[in-house]
Structure formats: C-alpha cells, structure tokens
C-alpha cells in the first residue's frame, strides 16, 4: 500500500430484522454496529460460535518469526483498548470478513480511542477468512508478545503494544495507534 494512500472503507452485508433483507453498511465493526442501531435501536449482534476458530488454528497459519513488534517506528496502541477490540472480534462478530486483492490491501476492523486493529490481504485475489475470530486471535497474539509497560503522563503506568503478524496464506494483522493513516 503506498504510504500516502488511505485503506478502503470496509463494507458488510448484514441482516437487520426491521429491513427484512440484507443491507449494505460501511465502516469498522464499531461503526457498523452504530449504523445498525440507528436503524433499529434494540439491535443486538449475534454472538458467534467460537468452535470453528481456535488458537490452534492460528498457530498453523503463521511462523513464530513472522511476528514483528514495533516495526518502522509505529506508534503504540493502548493495550487495554486493544484487548476490548480483540474480545469483540473473537466473540461478538458473526460473518466472514473479505478483503479485496492485494498485496497490501488493508482495512481497519476495529478502531477506538486512537487504537486500531487492521487486517491486510497480500494475495493477488480477494481473500475471505473463516471468521473475525481469526483476526482477533492474531491481534491477541500481537498484544501478548509485543506489549510493554510505560510511564503514563498521569504518573501511572500504561500497557502499550504495536506489531504485525504475517500468515502463511498471505494475509496479516496489524495492531498500532490510529492517529495517522496506515503507513506500511
């Protein structure tokens, strides 16, 4: 992805019962949920069945050496906020994420408080994953292996993390700050 370009906006096809048919909404998972709730205020997302994607399935997708912590001087994300995004992707999001042809086609799947989780497709064709849980598991591994504790401005400590994990089948996950556009 060129350094001066922004990643494309994600779009999801979801079924909202008030519409009686699938509708197209765009944005991060959090933005999509807010859009749906503006249509149907009592909307609750379906909790996905976590039996299809496990940590073991993640381990077969990547090599230990494929994880890079703090590449290219990236800004760190707040670890606590990243964990919220991880849990959301692992447990609360149904469906199969699809990303257009790459290489370097990245889309932000979680973003809050200037912290982001991205997934990128490095294949020359579109890539569909089995579940958002796969992205969440990779982001969790980045958090677990790339975290550090730093002195915060309020004299306390904060947990920080940033990293990128590459999968054998040519896709990757990025965890970092979201203050600027994604520059690889």
Question: Can you describe this structure?
Answer:
With 184 residues, the protein is α+β, with helices and mostly antiparallel strands. It has one domain. Helix content is 25%, strand content 30%. It has 4 helices and 12 strands. A hairpin with a 4-residue loop joins strand 11 and strand 12. Helix 3 runs antiparallel to helix 4. The radius of gyration is 16 Å and the shape is globular.
Q: Number of helical runs?
A: 4
Total domains: 1
Give the N-terminus to C-terminus distance in angstroms. 7 Å
Order of helices and strands: EEHHEEHEEEEHEEEE
Strand content bin: 25-35%
Structural class: alpha+beta
DSSP strand tally:
12
| Overall helicity | 25-40%
Give Rg in angstroms. 16 Å
Q: Tell me about the biggest sheet?
A: 5 strands, antiparallel
Let me know the average pLDDT: 75
Question: Largest beta sheet: what is the strand line-up?
Answer: 3-11-12-7-6
Which blocks of ≥5 consecutive residues have pLDDT under 50?
A: 1-22, 44-54
- Approximate shape: globular
Keywords: Signal
